[in-house]
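Input chain follows. Return structure tokens only.
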Amino acid sequence: MLLPLALLPLLAALQPAVATASSKRGLVYVSSPDSKHDDDTWTQPGSDLTWYYTYNAQTVPALARAKMQFVPMLWGASSNAKDTTFLKDVRALMKDGTNISYVLSFNEPDGTIATGGSNVPVDLAASTWIQQLEPLRKDGVKLGAPAMTGSPQGFRWLENFFKACNGGCHADFIPIHWYGNFEGLASHIGEVRNAYPNMTIWVTEYALAHANLKDSQAFYKTSAEYFDRIDYITHYSYFGSFRSSVSNVGPNAAMLTQDGMITDIGAWYLNVPAQGNVPKGAAGRSRPSYTVALLMVFVFFISSPWGV
């Protein structure tokens, strides 16, 4: 009996697996006032991390010195049709000797600015891609499709985007974001694979948001083992490279405690010894903050020619 493609990843996840080191793991780098103190965590000896991105085209010196591969991102789009700032920035990095093999494009363009999305109309995204990303393919750079939210509107946005491109946008891989349970994640990956079978998949943001510690850790273990088994998932990056006190996905998803100590999820992700450090939220905070999302938006706008 033939099974629907969307069910295959979920069935694969049910097979037993042994946790091992992984070269697929990268870092979603989120700058914060504590970053200078916390950056040593990501570059410690024995870390599995091989690549990172920063939601823009700016490298992080500490990560670059650790020889982690940098993946620039064109987070949003300018209304200036002649703007080629991102293209110039990436080519400047390449000229200076930075190894740029991949580029990520629009961050959750189907989402709102308030939730960390770039909120880009499909026609503007298509023209921006052709102007700033497509030329990089001639330089040998592989391009990531826009990274959608995990909602049904994300599929519709992406379909309309490729229609607006009219054959002028060529993506090599498709990024995925997910903040629900593992069953939903596996199903979503199956749907993406079914819709775009010729693209490999990067899971560039994922976590079990606002869950208790036991469930957060179980989700991490199951999803990491699953990603490492699936050959068409070539890269993944857990969303948690910040302290639990500023986490907008709940304190238990963070890879650092409120004091900057590595949590067990962080240790497992880096493949270093876990120390049992328990994350806690900010004192007196009854609801998770949106600090991380707002930092992304702020960094994007101040680094853009149309920003403040």
